[in-house]
């Protein structure tokens, strides 16, 4: 796993601008702490920061291929290709010779063999750039589900790109401007494909590639979620899901560095940990190493709420004992969550306000930091809820049939609110409701359907698609930024495209055949789990309930805004900020009760520390 950056300009000699390219690449140092490199051509500069995972000695990047003393192509690559050994064997049969054991060289040779069609052959998570020196064109490519990020900024005669916005912003040609659409992306809990927060900047859409030539920029889709008739019966479907998961986890355990799992004690992470434990034991390489996060004193003083019925720790321990894992709990306190260096690191890693999820940002950052001390790669459970139907809004008829994103309906929306401290004038300009409605209908228009589907089946297909393409991305962004800020690679087995293609087309009645959330997944892996974990209801990532944390937020907001007297750039309402700062915290702090504090704080810090200019 790595960080990439680069610059292509057809109107200038970029070999005179290597200092700028090195500065852009240096912003990715935390993503790639082990090595760095810069490759140059007259009109192209490719930068790379490496986190060494496969072929530690031979995988230096950027990597180029030559023939008869001339460069054919060069690549800078972030990610992992889980089928690189099969691809390598096929390429050898075509006459290619390899000088390393890395998946990067397989990617490069695959491009030379198959051109842009090589994208369809890759199984993995990746973001990469290929400069074809023969045709003088740039290819930007992103994985099917958008696990790895890739941003770009078109210029008059080329473009800039990077794994994170900071790499692009480091170039002096890019202003730090944010328009209304950028703010809407920050403030609403909907991830719009391709849109970035900073004006003029974009993300490569998942499953797409960008080709840049002298004649201009074109976009191509190489993969999308498709609707297909599901003909397997229930037993076959369960067995197929189990077989896919066993193969996927086995592939994703591949590394030349220590690998572990992130274990919450929920069904998803427990399934991954149990499958990993089984594979490692079979190979004589066990036990599996697992990590969980908890808050000091949380078990004794835990208070159930609408979505969290019990703390995670007992369930994680039960699973670890059941599979014989070497399990570690990372215990955090509120002082660590609000520490200045931690909050500064979270913002710097994200490049935009981490507007939702509250304390889950610093706690995930701290968890990843602790894990990185003993492991370089971690397997995680993102994607199962969206694919198998795990969230409560899948089972709430009012949410399912609402004319908007189901997680933004009454009952769930309060977890993704937080706009109450914004100035009324700004809220009027943003018109979040209209923006949301437009994005919702855009998403619906993309959903693949089958002509004979009944109304409920079609609607559940739509809800699943919305979750996979508009909600899941927010979780993947958070996990990528917080893990890579610590040089930790996180892999997500549930997002293997083969599993996505299969389970997306399983009828809803079969996914919940037992009347419960994720019934199909539970049936596929239940024999590997202790009863307490197998039967546990869906519980989100843990959040602190410590009122001291909430009071610290009020204190910080008061300091940054002068108690409401110094609102930043007209973003906040002074009177509301003052009331929020002066309102005492209760005996138990709930995430949805402090969302507006978190939002106001992060917005204020972002505008100040990033010197953002409002562009409207």
Automatic annotation (TrEMBL):
SUPFAM superfamilies: Adenine nucleotide alpha hydrolases-like (SSF52402), N-terminal nucleophile aminohydrolases (Ntn hydrolases) (SSF56235)
Pfam short name (any one): GATase_7
Record keywords: Amino-acid biosynthesis, Asparagine biosynthesis, ATP-binding, Glutamine amidotransferase, Ligase, Nucleotide-binding
Keyword Lipid metabolism: no
EC number: 6.3.5.4
Source organism, top-level taxon: Bacteria
Gene3D superfamilies: Glutamine Phosphoribosylpyrophosphate, subunit 1, domain 1, HUPs
Domain Glutamine amidotransferase type-2: 2-215
CDD domains, per database record: Asn_synthase_B_C, AsnB
Catalyzed reaction equations: L-aspartate + L-glutamine + ATP + H2O = L-asparagine + L-glutamate + AMP + diphosphate + H(+)
GO molecular function: asparagine synthase (glutamine-hydrolyzing) activity
Record family assignment: Belongs to the asparagine synthetase family.
PANTHER family xrefs: ASPARAGINE SYNTHETASE, ASPARAGINE SYNTHETASE (GLUTAMINE-HYDROLYZING)
Name the record gives this protein: asparagine synthase (glutamine-hydrolyzing)
Protein source organism: Nonomuraea purpurea
């Amino acid at each position: 796993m790595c960080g990439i950056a680069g610059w292509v300009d057809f109107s200038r000699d970029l070999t005179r601008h290597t200092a700028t390219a090195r500065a852009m690449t240096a912003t990715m140092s935390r993503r790639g702490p082990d090595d760095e490199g810069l490759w140059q051509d007259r009109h192209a500069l490719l930068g790379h920061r490496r986190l060494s995972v496969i072929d530690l000695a031979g995988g230096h990047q950027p990597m180029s291929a030559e023939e008869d003393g001339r460069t054919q192509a060069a690549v800078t690559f972030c990610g992992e290709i889980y089928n690189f050994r099969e691809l390598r064997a096929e390429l050898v049969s075509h006459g290619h010779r390899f000088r390393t054991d890395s998946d990067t060289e397989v990617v490069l040779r695959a491009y030379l063999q198959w051109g842009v069609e090589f994208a369809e052959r890759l199984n993995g998570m990746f973001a990469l750039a290929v400069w074809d020196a023969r045709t003088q064109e740039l290819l930007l490519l992103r994985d099917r589900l958008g696990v790895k990020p890739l941003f770009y900024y078109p210029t008059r005669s080329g473009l800039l790109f990077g794994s994170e916005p900071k790499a692009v912003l480091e170039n002096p040609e890019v202003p730090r401007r944010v328009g209304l659409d950028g703010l809407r992306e920050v403030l609403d809990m909907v991830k719009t494909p391709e849109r970035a927060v900073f004006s003029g900047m974009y993300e490569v859409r998942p499953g797409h590639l960008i080709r840049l030539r002298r004649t201009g920029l074109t976009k191509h889709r190489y993969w999308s979620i498709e609707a297909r008739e599901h003909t397997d019966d229930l037993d076959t479907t369960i067995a197929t899901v189990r077989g896919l998961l066993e193969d996927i986890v086995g592939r994703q355990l591949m590394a030349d560095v220590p690998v572990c799992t992130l274990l919450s004690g929920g069904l998803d992470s427990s399934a991954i940990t149990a499958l990993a434990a089984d594979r490692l034991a079979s190979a004589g390489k066990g036990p599996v190493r697992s990590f969980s996060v908890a808050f000091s004193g949380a078990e004794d003083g835990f208070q159930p709420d609408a979505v969290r019925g019990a703390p995670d720790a007992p369930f994680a321990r039960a699973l670890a004992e059941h599979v014989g894992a070497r399990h570690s709990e990372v215990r955090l306190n509120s002082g660590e969550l609000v520490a200045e260096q931690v909050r500064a690191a979270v913002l710097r890693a994200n490049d935009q306000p981490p507007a939702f999820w509250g304390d889950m940002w610093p706690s995930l950052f701290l968890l990843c930091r602790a894990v990185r001390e003993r492991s370089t790669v971690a397997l995680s459970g993102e994607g199962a809820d969206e694919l198998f139907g795990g969230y409560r809004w899948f089972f709430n008829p009012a949410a399912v049939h609402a004319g908007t994103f189901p997680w933004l309906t009454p009952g769930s929306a309060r977890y993704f609110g937080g706009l109450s401290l914004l100035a009324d004038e700004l809220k009027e300009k943003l018109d979040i409701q209209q923006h949301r409605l437009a994005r919702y209908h855009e998403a619906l228009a993309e959903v693949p359907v089958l002509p004979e589907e009944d109304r409920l089946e079609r609607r559940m297909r739509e809800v699943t698609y919305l979750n996979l393409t508009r909600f899941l991305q927010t979780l993947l962004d958070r996990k990528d930024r917080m893990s890579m800020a610590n040089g930790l690679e996180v892999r997500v087995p549930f997002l293997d495209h083969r599993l996505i293609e299969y389970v997306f087309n399983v009828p809803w009645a079969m996914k919940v055949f037992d009347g419960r959330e994720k019934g199909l997944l539970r049936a596929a892996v239940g024999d590997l789990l202790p009863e307490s974990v197998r039967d546990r209801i869906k519980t989100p990532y843990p959040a602190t309930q410590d009122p001291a944390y909430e009071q610290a937020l009020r204190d910080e907001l008061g300091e940054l805004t002068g108690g409401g007297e110094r609102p930043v750039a007209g973003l906040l309402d002074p009177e509301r900020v003052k009331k929020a700062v002066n309102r005492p915290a209760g005996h138990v702090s709930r995430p949805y009760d402090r969302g507006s504090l978190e939002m106001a704080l992060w917005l204020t810090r972002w505008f100040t520390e990033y010197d953002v200019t409002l562009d409207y």
